[in-house]
Amino acid sequence: MRGYGKIILFGEHSVVYGYPALATSLDVGVLCKIEPHNKYQLNVPCLSLVMNDNDSEHVLGKVFNKILSYFPQKKQACRIDLFPEIPLGAGLGSSAATSVSIIRGLLKHHNLVWDNNQVNDVAFAAETIFHGTPSGIDNTIATFGGMCYLRNAQEFPAPRQSIGEIPLKKLTISQLPVLSKPLQLMIVNTKRERRTKDLVDKVREFRNKNQVECDKTMQKMGSFAAIALDAFEREDFSTIGHLFDENQCCLQKIGVSCSEIDFVCDEARRHGALGAKLTGAGGGGCVIVLVEKQQPQLQEILEQRGFEVFYALCGKDCTRGK
């Protein structure tokens, strides 16, 4: 059982100012293996973590207890082993993927059937323990999978490609059709730590000093999501790559890139990538590189700099393999 990671393709930061964004699940995330046990236990081997159902010291233990509280008719206990396939704490939705993975594992173990809305509600409750006041985006993408258009429903209509609407607290998610040809990405974790709140505050300060310039940049970034939707329909990946580069230039302009991100983007373009940009808050974290095939030479250069590199597909129907 698996909960899927997510990336922001277009519109990070501009979505905070009311413009649309485009996000998607990855075909990798957090894998869950489950087997009967004499008590409820959660293990994360890569972190050397072992927690029981009464563990409340570690945040993951609190999350585990919260999720178990939604399974009152517990019969046979079980042990859950979690295997992250994406970097943790790097802006790829690993906490939501973890929660969804645990939930789906428990459902399978207890032979229960929930619809995606039920899974999503419990995953959101778990996200409040991880993050306090989550937006609901990560858990929704981890649950439903696929690509989605994020918008302020009061300002922007649903795109014509929408196949379903999911209202969140501040935004509405328009679910989009599966891509006939999934997008192949090289994802590079710079391993530079950052706090999302610090980057959001930095952009706000930039806007306070340069409102006209900043608002023009935000508006430009906000247009990329809709342009990309049409390009995806045409399978026009060269346009998608160009939009990656344009979006990255805008993110540099508002001050959320960094030397590590710039290095990855420059090397990616030098090695023939279709485009490259940061994903998420910036200031570190991950870079997404649009490639037509795996790039071993580029991967070697980036890994020699200490970066973590892996590949993922997006825009496919991940949930069929959940």
TrEMBL record:
SUPFAM superfamilies: GHMP Kinase, C-terminal domain, Ribosomal protein S5 domain 2-like
GO molecular function: ATP binding; mevalonate kinase activity
Localization per Swiss-Prot or TrEMBL: Cytoplasm
Keyword Glycosyltransferase among record annotations: no
Enzymatic class: transferase
GO cellular component, one term: cytosol
EC number(s) on file: 2.7.1.36
Keywords, comma-separated and alphabetical: ATP-binding, Cytoplasm, Kinase, Lipid biosynthesis, Lipid metabolism, Magnesium, Nucleotide-binding, Transferase
One GO term of the biological process aspect: isopentenyl diphosphate biosynthetic process, mevalonate pathway
Primary location class: cytoplasm
Domain GHMP kinase C-terminal: 228-302
Record-linked PANTHER family: MEVALONATE KINASE
The family this protein is said to belong to: Belongs to the GHMP kinase family. Mevalonate kinase subfamily.
NCBIfam families associated with the record: mevalon_kin (TIGR00549)
Protein name: mevalonate kinase
